Amino acid sequence: MDSDPLIRSYPDIGEKAFGCKGRALVSVFMYLELYLVAVEFLILEGDNLYKLFPNAGFKLAGLYIGGKTGFVLLTALVILPTTWLKSLGMLAYVSAGGVSASVILVGCVWWVGAVDGVGFHEDGVLLNWGGLPTTLSLFTFCYCGHAVFPTLCNSMKDRSQFSKVLLICFVTSTITYGSMAVLGYLMYGEYLKSQVTLNLPIRKMGSKLAIYTTLVNPLTKYAVITAPIATAIEETFVFRDSRYLSILVRTVIVISTVVVALTIPFFGYVMAFIGAFLSVTVSMLLPCLCYLRIDKSARSFGLELVFIVGILIIGSFVGIIGTYTSIKQIVKHL
Prior knowledge:
Layout: H1 10-52, E1 57-60, E2 63-66, H2 67-83, H3 88-114, H4 132-142, H5 149-155, H6 162-188, H7 205-234, H8 243-263, H9 267-294, H10 303-333
Antiparallel strand pairs: 1-2
Helix pairs in contact: 1-2, 1-7, 1-8, 1-9, 2-7, 2-8, 3-6, 3-7, 4-9, 4-10, 7-8, 9-10
Subcellular location: Membrane
GO biological process, one term: amino acid transport
Membrane topology: Multi-pass membrane protein
């Protein structure tokens, strides 16, 4: 983006590096990744609401809808109005609630273990090589925000502060992810489920607060994740500035993610697939390749080139092994 002030989005970077084919490749991987992350949010909501209210249900057009299906539909109805906001500046205030929710969630899980009696005494195999492909895929997923970085940067009043924003975001994310991983393992060991909130004793106040806090995150981030997809679709129409078109496009996106979430409701395995196949490509492989193509000086042999090639090799390994493992698990559980 520093090399060309006309670059406004991630696909623009792909076009700058490899022309129209580069733009198309980046767009496909980027939008598919964002789309499946939105699907994950709905699965997360359905799982945790079902944990809180296992017997809840409602009637729609004479049909009884209960369980996770009902909660996914209900979540979509609540999220839908937030997707109609076109300004990322407005969405930033909504998303800030999600950041606070993440910090509160870690505190709640710690409270359940330290105060509510669960404890931190679970023993288990500290290093399980069989789970390494899935683990690496999940790690990659945790840092897959690159697709929206250019859009967010251009939405800032002071773009010069973006590097500081990224530093704070990655440090905060690493601390919260690491804390949650350690707490979950010490509390439940190998019995830990894909979401720690599904393990927590439901009658404890700390557990309820943790689950309610978990529910806040998707509600605040769904619109930010789907905004680039909606914008890309809207720009293909002649009436791209039409408010009615914007609402229609964003509504269709929400409906389609609901369908996918109900078809493949496996939170952990879908997350592993996104991390291995899409996040590795979008956040590791494509940025390195585009950088090498745009900046000729980076191709000169040196420490920087060694690091870049190392990232490409590791990313390719994680992508191939992780994608195979995650698809195998999804097919097995369908």
